């Protein structure tokens, strides 16, 4: 069971509210998020594009601009090599449009997830060389490609790295590296995604060439914000500004590819939020790299034919629907194995799904982690043994713990919250045993903590409150929705809806006697219905919102968690 803890932090909420034109209620929510100090609050609430730091501060950008201008003047062939996920695809498109507008002879290449693996490899380098490419520009990759970039240099090519991943002990011998994580980089905000780094470089190049910046602050900014959400970056600082402005542009965009993707997913443009990027539109872009080739997603973004855009968008949606179906099957099989083998209480779960598509291992691991709240590895069969992905919880540094038995792997890498691994199939059981033997997580560590912002009876829920909460958007990683609590809630009526029977719509009444519509999503709805039959009243955690259906607007609460009244 999750542990609920109410946040209790003090401040002069009245004074903060008066100073920034917000209510004391919203001021309290900002304090709960550790948004303190006039400059930080001002930037959080009202930050604009003009508040972004100058691109020229990022180490490597001035040098990259000078080098690109020289290559463009010389008519040299330039190839952008991106990654196969949403960040890499958007970064590739941003650089492609940016360099093309600057007059460059430029094309692109993206690795195949299964055949090539992540990032730059020797085949991509040699393919560029055979095509007569003079200069390689990486995006969302490159910082770890020491040998591959050395190969490119030996072949006489120029290499510019644009990346946002953490640096390794050895840095590649590129001509220029643009990455805010370089130790002596003075750029103040370090947590940009790869597409945002690419956007910064294009902006500096266009400024140097005195090119019009309409597209920079239009489609290209929109895609930098889109990728920020899709790559699950923390929505703080500059990322918050990029996403907020990007969403405004997305709602009104004439970009053919994005417009078609919005259309085929039947989304209301006026209500587009970070959620729709993270869970509807973004997965369509990612699905091409998972089940086919990411070049299909890039083709969608780059098309200039409305009919072709619609066809390509339909294809990507179909791929994503297939991906969702395959994921559901793999999740069900994973839980069947967990139950059959009694792994429910393993502190580190290792599930081997030979028939799971290897590109889905991380998604499946994340779904299991959400349900079980413990580190999870999902392994799949590959051409040369077993490959897998892991997803962790905050108390467990996955990469660090994996490193304690690295003799089991043929390859591994990652960071505290996620990792990838390859190993011989014969090592799977040993890996499971060793990870659990070495694990020092306690029961407290394996109890998920949910922080409650405010205990808020239904009588205080109003359209005005919902409107005020929009000041805190966009929500996502690093800027989660506030959590409110209501006590002794009765379910007056309820019904299960949805194609997968995973939606519970309810009429709720709390102890103040006020009734509101409620909605709750859960994959195992039978378990929920059994809980509801056991007790007449519940404490709930929720978030208020407006439900718009056929022109009718009604207040409702989205239930996030519940427990029987009387249970601490």
Structure description:
- With 568 residues, this protein is an alpha/beta fold.
- The chain is built from 19 helices and 18 strands.
- The protein has helices at 13-20, 24-32, 38-46, 61-74, 86-101, 122-130, 146-154, 194-209, 219-230, 237-252, 256-264, 274-291, 295-302, 306-341, 361-372, 398-402, 428-438, 463-469, 525-534; strands spanning 3-6, 77-81, 105-109, 135-139, 158-162, 176-178, 349-352, 376-382, 385-391, 411-415, 418-423, 449-452, 454-455, 484-497, 503-509, 515-521, 537-549, 552-564.
- The strands form four sheets. A five-stranded parallel beta sheet has the order 3-2-4-5-6, with helices on both faces. A five-stranded mixed beta sheet has the order 7-8-9-11-10.
- α4 packs across α8 and α6 (122-130) runs parallel beside α7.
- The longest helix has 36 residues, at 306-341.
- The chain is globular.
- It starts with a strand and ends with a strand.
Averaging pLDDT over every residue, what do you get? 94
Structural class: alpha/beta
> How many H/I helices?
19
Biggest sheet record? 5 strands, parallel
- Please count the beta strands (DSSP E, at least 2 residues each): 18
Shape: globular
User: What spatial order of strands do you see in the largest sheet?
Assistant: 3-2-4-5-6
Q: Which percent range fits the helix content?
A: 40-55%
Taking pLDDT < 50 over at least 5 consecutive residues as the criterion, the unreliable ranges are none
Beginning-to-end CA distance, first to last residue: 10 Å
Strand content: 15-25%
Q: Radius of gyration, rounded?
A: 25 Å
């Amino acid at each position: 069971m999750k542990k609920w803890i109410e946040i209790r932090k003090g401040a002069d909420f009245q004074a903060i509210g008066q100073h920034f034109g917000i209510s004391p209620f919203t001021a309290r929510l900002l304090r709960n998020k550790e948004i303190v100090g006039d400059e930080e609050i001002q930037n959080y609430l009202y930050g604009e594009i003009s508040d972004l730091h100058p691109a020229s501060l990022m180490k490597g950008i001035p040098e990259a601009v000078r080098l690109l201008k020289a290559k463009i003047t010389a008519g040299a062939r330039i190839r952008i090599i991106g990654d196969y996920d949403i960040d890499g695809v958007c970064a590739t498109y941003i650089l492609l449009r940016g360099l093309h507008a600057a007059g460059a002879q430029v094309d692109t290449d993206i690795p195949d997830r299964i055949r090539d693996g992540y990032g730059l490899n020797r085949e991509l380098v040699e393919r560029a060389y055979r095509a007569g490419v003079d200069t390689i520009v990486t995006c969302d990759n490159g910082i770890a490609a020491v040998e591959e970039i050395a190969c490119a240099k030996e072949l006489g090519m120029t290499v510019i790295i644009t990346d946002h991943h953490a640096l390794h002990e050895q840095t590649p011998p590129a001509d220029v590296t643009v990455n805010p994580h370089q130790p002596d980089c003075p750029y103040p905000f370090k947590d940009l995604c790869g597409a945002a780094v690419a956007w910064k470089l294009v902006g500096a190049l266009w400024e140097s060439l005195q090119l019009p910046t309409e597209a920079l602050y239009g489609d290209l900014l929109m895609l930098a914000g889109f990728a920020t959400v899709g790559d699950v970056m923390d929505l703080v600082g500059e990322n918050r500004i990029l996403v907020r402005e990007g969403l405004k542009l997305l709602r009104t965009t004439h970009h053919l590819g994005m417009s078609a993707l919005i259309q085929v997913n039947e989304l209301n443009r006026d209500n587009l939020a970070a959620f729709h990027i993270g869970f509807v539109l973004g997965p369509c872009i990612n699905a091409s790299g998972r089940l086919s080739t990411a070049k299909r997603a890039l083709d969608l973004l780059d098309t200039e034919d409305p009919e072709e855009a619609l066809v390509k968008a339909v294809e990507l949606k179909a791929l994503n629907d297939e991906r969702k179906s395959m994921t559901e099957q793999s999740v069900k099989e994973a839980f069947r194995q967990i139950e059959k083998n009694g792994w429910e209480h393993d502190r580190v779960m290792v599930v081997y799904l030979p028939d799971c598509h290897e590109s889905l291992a991380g998604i499946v691991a994340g779904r299991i982690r959400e349900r079980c709240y413990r580190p999870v590895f999902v392994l799949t069969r590959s051409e040369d043994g077993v490959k897998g992905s892991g997803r962790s919880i905050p108390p467990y540094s996955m990469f660090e713990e994996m490193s304690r038995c690295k003799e089991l792997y043929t390859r591994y890498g990652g960071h505290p919250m996620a990792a990838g691994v390859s190993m011989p199939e014969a090592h799977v059981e040993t890996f499971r045993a060793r990870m659990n033997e070495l694990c020092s997580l306690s029961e407290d560590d394996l109890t998920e903590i949910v922080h409650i912002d405010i205990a808020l009876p239904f009588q205080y829920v109003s359209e005005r409150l919902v409107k005020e909460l929009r000041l805190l958007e966009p929500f996502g990683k690093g800027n989660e929705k506030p959590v409110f609590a209501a006590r002794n809630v009765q379910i007056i009526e309820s019904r299960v809806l949805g194609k997968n029977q995973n939606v519970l719509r309810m009429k709720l009444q709390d102890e103040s006697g006020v009734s509101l519509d409620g909605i709750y999503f859960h994959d195992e709805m039978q378990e929920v219905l059994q809980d509801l039959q056991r007790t007449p009243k519940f404490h709930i955690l929720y978030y208020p919102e407006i439900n718009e259906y056929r022109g009718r607007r009604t207040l409702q609460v989205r239930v996030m968690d519940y427990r029987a009244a009387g249970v601490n």
